[in-house]
Amino acid sequence: MAVTFRPPADGVEIAYISDYSPAKDTLSQGMLLSAVNGQKIENMDQWIEIAPTLSGPVQLTADGKVYDFFVDRANISDIGIDVMNLDTTNLDFGLDIRGGTRVILKPQMENATKDVIDQVMETLKTRANIYGLKEINFYPVQTSTGEYFIQIEAAGVGREIVNDLLSKQGKFEAKIIKPVELTNGQGIFDLGGAEKYPVTEAENDSIVVDDIKISQGDKFTLDEIDFEYLNKTNNVYFFFGKAYDSKDIELILTDSQHSAIMPSGDGFRFYFTVSVSTQGAERFAKITSGIPSRMDMNSGDYYLKDSEIYLFLDEQVVSALKISSELGGKVYTTPQIDGYRETKEDAVAEKLRLQTILRSGALPVTMETVSVSVISPKLGEGFVVSAAYAGLLAAIMVVIVVFIRYRNFKVAIPMVLISLSEVVILLGISAANDTGIWMGVLLVNVVIIGLAWWKKEEMDTFTVIGAILIPMMGMLSWTIDLPAIGGIIAAIGTGIDHMIVIADETLRGEKKEYKMILGVKDKIKKAFFIIFGSAATTIAAMIPLMSIGVGLIRSFAITTIVGVLVGILITRPAYAKLVEMAAGKN
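Given the sequence above, the corresponding structure tokens read:
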């Protein structure tokens, strides 16, 4: 089956590295931490006990390599590394079972109201959904003094996601350098059409624009456009004009014509296009009006002279692009954002991060990360063992009850084994990174079906469908959390009911007081008519929850549907064959 169990290894997985940690630029999330100062680390509890005592020179062994650090306890309280116990399977467990990371964010705003916190949470939820973060929950927290915080609980959220995605305000601005050349101390601030403002040189590199005296670094407004006086070179004065901001973003274009990642030099360049409002495009046209063009000697293309468009995110430049001369004075609604990273993985991550922040919009306030900690599984470390004991007890009770009813272990014991096989198949389908295994299973199934057809052997139609459909579903995966476990239990319960229907319909005629009316195969067909009706009803009820539900409801619906399909297409026909053989021998 596709579930794989990894051999136990000494060590813990690094879950989060704080900004103040001396290891923040050396170690990374996901690395295996196996020793501290030569002492082996076997589990998270041992690390929690040792970490607060670390001070001065510290030697950590991560991914088999030894790293030396210095923990200055005079300035920091600890080494700033949180860890989690290692996964021993390829199942993607949720927060309830595996645990995760708890992040506390504080708004950098005095007396932040509940409405502001709600706006921040909605924006963060949008970012999490777009970015593809699973198993992430947001909670408002209010202190006794009335101060609001946001608590985030998530599985596998690293420092870069907290700092670069969740705590970023996401304030976007596109500013264009507008050069204004003065001749004999006089010039024109051209904003297109009739909007031309006289510029006069003044003392100490200051100027007068439309009777407004402006010194270097001053901000001012002309024709409802915000400008900033940057500097001057010889007789040319340079200004920043804001063309777009977060409110102007209408759409992020991600199709292949407007978005791509490509090799460039020793790394990878990425770009994507943003569709902005008409008002923003009109500001672009006004700012770029009157700027002369110049040919680039390297490419031979013509660009606006001494002008570029700078794209800012939270006051940091993310792109600086030349402006084609053809766009000068034109209403331009599709600016392009580009960037460069050394690896393709980093380029993909940065591109997705920028797109996520721009799509979700800016937070109403800047958020500060107050604390990050690892949370333990809510169900405790003994959950799997407890679940196994409960399953064993349920299996014994099923065998006893079914044996009392039919007096036949050949009917009772396979019922339990079939239910166990359903759980194994269901977990195998949900396991991650097993596409290759399931493709192999699909290929083997197709070969077996082909040989059976070639030899003209009898085949059950639904089993054939299951042999093809189940491996295809196995190329997907989902998180095993409490709702998913509820779905597994529901599927097992449904399966037991169906198998009792098969046994009851098939073996009813064995008792002397009943008269044999139908053959065994006819009885099985009658049983399956009931089973398919029940399964169809269950699936029909779950589909709306899977389509429109989120979080807990969706996980339960997916697991239930897959479990029912596994039952009616694979395990129910197999059990029916066993019951048919048992009935034929009696």
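Confidence is low (pLDDT under 50) at residues 510-517. Try to locate this feature in the token string yourself.
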